[in-house]
TrEMBL record:
PROSITE patterns: ABC_TM1. InterPro entries: ABC_transporter_permease, MetI-like, MetI-like_sf. This is Carbohydrate ABC transporter membrane protein 1, CUT1 family (TC 3.A.1.1.-). It comes from Celeribacter neptunius. Keywords: Cell membrane, Membrane, Transmembrane, Transmembrane helix, Transport. GO terms for biological process: transmembrane transport. The lineage of its organism: Bacteria, Pseudomonadati, Pseudomonadota, Alphaproteobacteria, Rhodobacterales. Pfam families: BPD_transp_1. It is found in: Cell membrane. The chain crosses the membrane at residues 12-34, 71-93, 105-125, 154-177, 198-220, 260-281.
Amino acid sequence: MARRQKKSFMPALAILPTWLTVVVVYIGAMVWTLNLSFTKSKLFPSGAYVGFDQYERLLGSSKWIKAVSNLATFGVLYVLGCLVIGFCLAAALDRKVRFENAFRTLFLYPYAMSFVVTGLVWQWLMNPVLGVQATMQGLGWESFSFDLLTSRDYAIYGVVIAGLWQGSGLVMVMMLAGMRGIDVEQWRAARVDGIPAWRVYVSIILPQLGPPLAAVATLLTMGVIKTYDLVIAITNGGPGTATEVPAKFIMDNLFQRQNLGLATAAAIMLLMSVVIIVAPFRYASYIRAKRKAGVL
């Protein structure tokens, strides 16, 4: 009996340092950040509480509103674009094309790069003096234009293009793995019925890719909320505030403007957005697991 209790105690003891790290570092840091957001802390933490003043200032800041608006635009186009492009690439490779391994590596390679490298690459490509525009005009297409980053109205779409180039490969790999797990008998039945390949992918294959689709959508959405280095590398938030995002707003107030209270309030708002997005996915996964186990 004592030996059995010892065996059951050892796994708990082994993961104790991990739990301590989670409680002290993660939960402790969140509680400390929440506490600072209710103070008038500037360069250093302050114990002078001001209630919800920092949140009122934040919601009244045009720069913060613009950052949230840019993030929403970027997020919708980035997630939907990656899902569509990634699915199309996966469907193309699922047709057993020649040099499939080479194409798969080529499409996935951008995802292995950091957002900083991706940003620098696309900053050069969209440079009207050195990039694609200059090259095409030098070949005779004088009216060709590819200078999105210099326009306040279109700069955010330039950031979206860079994000799509990097993120679509991840969707492709996960969708392709899901497609390869689908019974080939469905394809045989579709061929017998004369159903076009595109209709099979849209009406039969896609509805069966729910779990990998949900997983990759969650990953992409989490990446959207944390967007910082891609924007810094491409535009540094410009022109003006055309590509300002919440993470950059937080870092600017934390290190440049020395406004710790406002920065932590913005960080809490960003954390709440993560919880709002992740919670439904986690709840859906929990319900699905319970149903499979026969509990619900």
